[in-house]
UniProtKB/TrEMBL annotation:
Primary gene name: Itpripl1_2
Protein name (Swiss-Prot/TrEMBL): IPIL1 protein
Organism the protein comes from: Pachyramphus minor
Superkingdom of source: Eukaryota
Amino acid sequence: SWSVLEDRIVYQLVVCLRPPPGYSFRLELYGGTHLPERCCNIRVVLECTCSRTGDMFCFLHPSDNSQSSPLLSTLCTGSYLDVEDIACWVQNLVRSAWECLPQWHRWQLRVLPSSHSCRLVLTDPSQVQLCAVLIFAVQQ
């Protein structure tokens, strides 16, 4: 969606997170309440991807138990996705990617602090501002 707030155009974008191969997301509600958009933990569950026969590699039944996704260890606390870690990771990724876009050298990028989303402000040479808010979601 988009809107105009004061002197800024604000875009809100939903970014659907998908689990890496061999994993799935499971929503666990807080105390039985039914507000999954605000009141749940997102458990990262290791899934079996093999038939337990043949030479197919499986994340749940690896030949050595040291197999782990480095991305999951970055974005999770224990067995759960950590929204603050995801927001920080995406903010850093955007900063790094911005430096690789020479055609935008005339625009200024500011990444605003946020613990549950990624908020970006782009300012053009005439001081017009665009604000993008990346909201993280998982599919039920």
